[in-house]
Write a structure and sequence with these properties.
It is a single chain. By secondary structure, the chain is an alpha+beta fold. It is built from 6 helices and 10 strands. Strands 8-5-7-6-10 form a 5-stranded antiparallel beta sheet. Helix 1 packs across helix 2. The chain is globular. About 6% of the residues have low confidence.
Length: 242
């Protein structure tokens, strides 16, 4: 899968007249070196057909301050600003133009519509939940991990569908967050808002051998499994707490 993506990405670079990616040093061969932000954005937009846009990024001598006008920004660098979320696109030339001018900009996925959505939860709780769901034989989709939260990508859903799903539940852990229509998600290898880097805990996989369509579970399946995992804690507590 990685080799196929690599070949497609290089063809895109050639078509857009970007220089060929430099070969990796022998010491890094097979070491899982992260792609550039431009490569990641092009792969998402032009290969996976996920609409992306650059995040606002950081500013200041230490790169700790968000580049947006809000001095108290709670997600420094990791949100849309200029361009706004509605500018998200799958057009390779637009993506190349953006990151050609801002090569360190984070990669944001505009969730919803025809694009993947996500359910996120605290990192430690997510790691425990994923181990449990794997042991139960549940097939999960791609998982985006930051030092503080993991996001489980799911098939697109509408806000109405999500509302009906949550209304039918007696209890939903407050630690769960939903990234659907009108939302966004920070993608690898972007810098995380609280420090560290975003990574794939589980990379996107094809739906079946030889297929270009990516596997994404339904939101009901993931939420049902997470709610069950949460409610089975000893003493009635939640396993998905912070």
């Amino acid at each position: 899968m990685r080799e196929i993506l690599g070949r497609r990405l290089q063809r895109l670079r050639d078509r857009l007249k970007f220089p060929r990616a430099a070969p990796r040093p022998a010491s890094e061969a097979g070491a899982g070196v992260a792609p550039s932000l431009l490569d990641a954005a092009l792969t998402c937009a032009a290969v996976r057909h996920w609409p992306v846009l650059p995040g606002v990024g950081r500013a200041g001598a230490d790169s700790r301050r968000c580049a947006c006008p809000d001095p108290d920004c709670v997600v420094p660098g990791a949100h849309p600003f200029d361009p706004g979320l509605l500018a998200a696109t799958t057009d390779a030339r637009m993506v190349a133009w953006w990151w050609g001018r801002r090569p360190t900009a984070p990669v944001l996925l505009a969730t919803g519509g025809a694009a993947p959505c996500a359910v996120s939860l605290p990192a430690k709780a997510a790691a425990r939940a994923v181990v449990r769901l794997d042991a139960q034989g549940m097939r999960l989709g791609p998982i985006v991990a930051t030092p503080t939260r993991w996001s489980l990508l799911v098939a697109p859903y509408s806000l109405e569908r999500l509302g009906e799903l949550l209304y039918a539940k007696d209890h939903v852990p407050s630690s769960l967050r939903f990234h659907g229509e009108g939302g966004y998600l920070l993608l690898p290898p972007s810098p995380a808002s609280g420090g560290g880097q975003v990574r794939w805990e589980r990379e996107p996989e094809p739906r079946r051998a030889g297929s270009e369509e990516l596997w994404l579970p339904e939101v009901e399946t993931v939420v049902d499994a997470l709610v069950e995992a949460s409610s089975s804690a000893p003493g009635g507590g939640s396993r998905l707490a912070y």
